[in-house]
Write a structure and sequence with these properties.
Layout lengths: L1 H6 L10 E6 L7 H14 L4 E6 L6 H5 L8 H5 L11 E2 L5 E4 L6 H4 L3 H12 L5 E6 L5 H7 L6 E5 L3 H23 L2 H7 L5 H9 L6 H17 L3 E7 L2 H19 L4 E7 L3 H8 L3 H4 L4 H12 L4
Parallel strand pairs: 1-5, 1-6, 2-4, 2-5, 6-7, 7-8
Antiparallel strand pairs: 3-4
Helix pairs in contact: 2-15, 7-8, 8-12, 10-11
């Protein structure tokens, strides 16, 4: 904590917060570790950061940060009438960093209604912060997809160099795109086509030749579909890479599949090098950038913060 206080500086306040959503599909790839350390690093640089534990079943951001709060995200969902997220925001031991703690994992909270999710997203965008980092659940559940889609260009996909992780990240990105299309059209016909195909390019061609729509309508829908896909610009972070070359290979594979099958062009944001001491810092409740600021992996996190524009 002392390190954070000594290095913290003040920044001009932004009128509206930027939202950074951290997902990736597969569990255990380091999403929470990245989100928590990135939050502390950017807060150390003087930006007002709020980290949100949006894992509605197994929240653990507090564990990684080494903080505890009596308030939980459950309290927001249980509020009657108008929703107010400000009373759930809690201070942490780190200057400029606040937290919205996760839920208790009870079934009714782990599966909120769509209107509750909309209310939560609306309240997040109204918070007094420069940056809001949202740590998502593993998998491609509707809750996770809807939170990932709250921002088009500020979603981070965390992967490891293993093929299973890359495959799961691709499936997560595909599910996100299909969910976006489904929500955009709210059409039974479009939803029916989405369930039949795995490639978004095939889906667009299927629409182009479908007898469900007339020619002019088909072409208009195809243009809209391509625009919806190309508007998504997720950022890839490769965790537990042995070196920059291995990270680049993994990011290139995911980017290639995304371009070919989804018409999405991800950005390679950077990587985190493998280090055995990461587990130690998680167990101790002291983030890497605080306990081992000179480690290569901590420098990787600092580079990621800079590439995001938080100098």
């Amino acid at each position: 904590m002392q390190l954070i206080q000594e290095q913290a500086v003040s920044r001009p306040q932004r009128e509206a917060p930027e939202i950074l959503v951290v997902g990736g599909g597969k569990g255990g790839v380091g999403k929470t570790c990245l989100a928590a350390n990135l939050a502390v690093e950017i807060a150390r640089r003087g930006w007002r950061v709020t980290i949100v534990d949006a894992d509605l079943s197994c929240s653990n951001v507090e564990t990684v940060l080494g903080t505890r709060s009596e308030r939980k995200l459950d309290d927001f969902f249980y509020q009657r009438g108008g929703k107010d997220l400000r009373c759930i925001v809690c201070d942490t031991q780190y200057e400029n960093l606040t937290i919205i703690p996760g839920t208790t994992g009870l079934l009714d909270v782990a599966n909120p209604k769509y209107q509750q999710k909309v209310a939560l997203i609306r309240e997040l965008k109204a918070l007094q912060a420069d940056l809001i980092i949202v740590d998502l659940d593993a998998g491609a559940h509707l809750n996770t997809l809807d939170f990932f889609l709250m921002t088009e260009t500020n979603g981070i996909l965390v992967i490891t160099p293993e093929k299973t992780s890359i495959d799961n990240a691709f499936k997560f990105l595909r599910a996100s795109l299909f969910r976006r299309v489904e929500r955009f059209y709210e059409s039974p016909e479009v939803a029916h086509l989405l369930k039949r195909l795995e490639s978004f390019r095939e889906f667009v061609e299927c629409v182009r030749t479908s007898a469900l729509f007339d020619g002019e309508t088909r072409e208009a829908i195809c243009r809209e579909l391509v625009a919806l896909a190309r508007a998504m610009k997720p950022k890839i972070v490769v965790n537990r890479a042995r070196n920059a070359y291995e990270a680049q290979i993994a990011a290139n594979i995911l980017s290639k599949h995304s371009r070919q099958h989804l018409m999405i062009e991800p950005e390679n944001l950077g990587y985190m090098v493998f280090d055995n001491r990461v587990s130690e810092t998680i167990n101790s409740g002291t983030p890497l950038v605080v306990s081992y600021p000179k480690l290569k992996v901590s420098q990787c996190i600092a580079d990621l913060a800079s590439r995001l524009g938080y100098f």
